[in-house]
TrEMBL record, chains A, B:
UniProt name for this protein: 3-hydroxyacyl-CoA dehydrogenase
BP GO annotations: fatty acid metabolic process
Source organism: Skermanella stibiiresistens SB22
GO MF, one annotated term: L-gulonate 3-dehydrogenase activity
Keyword Hydrolase included in the entry's annotation: no
NCBIfam families, A to Z: PRK06129.1 (NF004783)
Pfam families per the UniProt record, alphabetical: 3HCDH, 3HCDH_N
Sequence ranges assigned to domain 3-hydroxyacyl-CoA dehydrogenase C-terminal in this UniProt record: 181-245
Domain 3-hydroxyacyl-CoA dehydrogenase NAD binding: 2-177
Gene3D superfamilies per the UniProt record, alphabetical: N-(1-d-carboxylethyl)-l-norvaline Dehydrogenase, domain 2, NAD(P)-binding Rossmann-like Domain
EC numbers: 1.1.1.35
Family classification: Belongs to the 3-hydroxyacyl-CoA dehydrogenase family.
Residues annotated as transmembrane: none
Annotated signal sequence range: none
Amino acid sequence: MLGSGLIGRSWAITFSRAGWQVAMWDREDGAAEASRAILLTLLEDLAAEDLLNGQSAAEVGARVRVTKTLAEALEGTSWVQENTPEIVGIKREVWAELDALAPPDAVCASSTSGIVPSAFTEELPGRGRCLVAHPINPPYLIPAVELVPAPWTTPETMAKAEEVMRAIGQSPIVMTRELDGFVMNRLQGALLEEAFRLVADGYCSVEDVDVGLREGLALRWSFIGPFETIDLNAPGGVRDYVTRYGGLYERLYKSMQRRADWTGSVLDTVEGQRRERVPKEGLADRQRWRDRRLMALSRHKRKAAQDFGN
Amino acid sequence: MLGSGLIGRSWAITFSRAGWQVAMWDREDGAAEASRAILLTLLEDLAAEDLLNGQSAAEVGARVRVTKTLAEALEGTSWVQENTPEIVGIKREVWAELDALAPPDAVCASSTSGIVPSAFTEELPGRGRCLVAHPINPPYLIPAVELVPAPWTTPETMAKAEEVMRAIGQSPIVMTRELDGFVMNRLQGALLEEAFRLVADGYCSVEDVDVGLREGLALRWSFIGPFETIDLNAPGGVRDYVTRYGGLYERLYKSMQRRADWTGSVLDTVEGQRRERVPKEGLADRQRWRDRRLMALSRHKRKAAQDFGN
């Protein structure tokens, strides 16, 4: 685990919960130790919520150690997960080092959300075993992870990455080639774009958009996704759906060909309406509440899958 | 309740569960009686799942009666919900009749998903009390409902409609003026457009998109919506989020300026991949499974709101 911030720590929990020995290293002195202390507290929370697969927090926590050097962290590892700042210059530097030090058969993955893997792996001798494995945070509660190959990432690397991710309980999205924004941020971006446009044009409030998802669209999406949703929304399946509603969506697309300036006055509106609901000083509490709800949803989904299947 | 198909029946359940007396009428002879029989079976299912607020199926079912004429159905009612086919000519005809027959103080709502209210209410003497109340089906499990005014819908009508919807347990999205696709289909359309594009361009599979939502984005959206999600995803709230990631989304928007032809070869891909997972003859079973999961999610959300708040 390279980098011990929010993402590095979350990955450390995800791997160690699955039985892996995790070595955590951070360029900044003392950062990894401090992060490990937070990790132990988080593990207590997860144990209390029955989200450690029956293991105790101590048991899982004992698998996470901090190393003084990068070389120590990489020694004998079969998976490297890099979680350094989202700056391509830093990534290039770190990746040169890690590619030189990691065992030749180790898979090397970056958590980056905004940089394609070719941007920092092109010059590396071991570039064939490098990819992006982008989680939604925190991966120990949100299983989806995007596996993104550079043009030179080998099929064996992709296959092994998929296997490892499934083995630790994640749900990999396996891209065939790299693309800015990958899959999830592109889908999120497309929806947010329309959300900002609707609010900017004054058709509805910020809360109305959120209600439309949390009391509407996202209920089915949270267990079947958008393609299965439309496939089940017409008697003859997705082709029937497109026959019935394709014309509507074609009309709508035409009326979406203009960007809302997210940084313009709509941002004042969005921020103003959000701060009415949750004042700035309440954000940290609300984030903890969100994590509780996410844990409860995670338990619910596990139970529903047992009761009804997936 | 005008029209006794899937939507009319679902609304009848939603209103009667909340204690309303519901009169169901259908232009087609015998259709409303047949629909009421299905409704009684559905109520048994909902009672078994503890989704009738502690009432028995018989108790709720007794509030739904079938009438022989439209005039009888409208007599003394305070809310009219129209659920006829999505053809503007039919709507115009039906609405002329219902506006003439409904009590002057009744709110008249259409369930249409694809027609703006001005298209079938302009000529009506009582057009001020007419609006669209568009549910996601079934409204007794999915609370979001879009209230869409025509230019002449009175503020009193909108206020009363909002009040009635909240009283029967729905979560209204109150639009300030009409717009093709309303709010939810526009948000869904924007996301689907990108989903079709990703699959058409071969970046990922249909299942990958569904995983990205059901094991990723839609988990948080299902209880906080997309605006609250980004508001909680940066330490300083939504403005901080836009500062950090606005540039990424601006780049992505530029690369989305081209439509995927949903009816083209991508539809063969989508349909092919869906049919591998659920063959055509399995769709009806899968729809029943979806409804079970939706009921379980509905119970989970009620309990989570009690345990942790909303």
